[in-house]
Structure formats: C-alpha cells, structure tokens
Amino acid sequence: MKVHFIGIGGIGVSALAQYYLAKGHRVSGSDLVRSEITDFLRKKGAKISINSKPKSQKSKPQLKTQKFVKRVNLLIYSPAVPKDHPELKMAKKLGVKCLSYPEALGELTKKYFTIAICGTHGKSTTTAMISLILIKAGFDPTVILGTKLKEFRNSNFRMGKSKFLVIEADEWQASFLNYWPKIIVLTNIEREHLDYYKDLKHILKTYKKYIGHLPKEGVLAINRDDKNILK
User: Fold this and answer.
1) Which fold has domain 2-102?
2) CA 34 to CA 111: how far, in whole Å?
3) What's the rounded Cα separation, in Å, for the pair 31 and 50?
C-alpha cells in the first residue's frame, strides 16, 4: 500500500509514518520545513518533499508533491493542515481515503490491545515509563510517543511484535475521542486548550466521554490525588 502524509515532520504524524514503513508500506510525505525528523524518515525510506515559501511571498505555498497524491491508497494529514490544502483537496477529489492523524491512529487502536495515556501533564513521561516496563517484562509493545526516547534510538516510535500498542492520547481538540483503548491511564486534568474547550466543565465532560470508550472489561488507572479527576 502507498501512504502519503501531509505534515510528516510533526512528532505524532512522523511516528505513524514509521509504523507504516515498518509494516513494509511505501511512504511519501510533505512538510513546510526540513528537520531532523524529515531527514530521519528519508533515511528510513520515505520520499519527502519540502514545500517552503519565501517570507516575502504572500500567496499560498506552491506545493510540488501533488504527483504523490495521484498514486496513493491512503492519505494521512496533521490536524494543523488547513482544509483547503492542495494535496488534501486533490486526494478527496480523486477518491483517496483521507484520515486525520487522530483518525488514523484511532483505527490502529481497534486492531491492538491498546494502552492509552492521557492527561494535561506527564503524558510523554508516563507513556515512556509504561513502555519501558512492558519491554523489560517481555510484552514487546508497539509504541507511539509524543517525544524522542533514547531507549528507542532517539526515536518517537518502536515497532513491537505483540498485540500491545502503547500510545500518548492527546486531549487537544478532543483528539482522543478517536481512540478505543482497553486500558486508559489518566494522569491529571487542568484547564487547558481553552481555545477549543469552553471551560473546565466542558473538559471534564469530554474526558468522561472518552473514558466511556473503554469496554466492559477495560481498566481505568487514575491519579487519585488529582481533585478534578475525582469530580
């Protein structure tokens, strides 16, 4: 399968790109700037185009990677990508399956025994700790992390061979409502992302809806010292 990523240099999207590379799929992508992440993905075998524009240019960037879109089976895009992005518009016009990063990750959570770490603070640290414990215990999980980890050879991704998937579940724009884990680890809840959420009540309501994604046999692990979680 051929998979194209818009915003492939992002910390989350790049981890998903590594997943598809590890599965043997052909991966291409585009981003506005070259970075350590895009260089790393190129070394892994991804075909990447950098679509930068001069600061003085007021028009939209002249994207050079629309040729990739015509030949792909799946397009995954960063939530930061505007709806009128030329590659995204072309893919939809051609009938290519298009998923946002949270939607694409959500599909993976249904295929694995997923452990999702969420909360306002400490997600990356807790995800890393749980992942390393599982690896040490021999569970060999696949891990999608929101930061680079030296134990993963300075990567934000690890490909395992078991049924276990450990992910960092972001509450930004209620992204985690796309995920269907078997275990949820909730670190804390505070007022954040108020450009999306109306207030703390709205935040708590969204977390409650997310926790409702757990199956009957699911597990919720919480920080009982956090007063907002206990609400």
Assistant:
1) Rossmann fold (3.40.50)
2) 32
3) 5
Sheet strands (E) in 55-208:
74-77, 97-100, 113-118, 142-149, 155-158, 164-168, 183-186
On whether the CB atoms of residues 194 and 172 are closer than 8 A, the answer is no
CA angle 161, 168, 156 (to 5 degrees): 60
Whether 41 has a pLDDT exceeding 80, the answer reads yes
Question: For residue 166, what are the β-bridge partners?
Answer: 115, 143
> Domain segments of the chain: what residues?
2-102, 112-230
Give 3-state DSSP helix, strand, coil % of the chain, rounded to 5.
35, 25, 40
pLDDT of residue 127 exceeding 60: yes
Answer yes or no: is pLDDT of 62 > 70. no
Q: Which fold has domain 112-230?
A: UDP-N-acetylmuramoyl-L-alanine:D-glutamate ligase (3.40.1190)
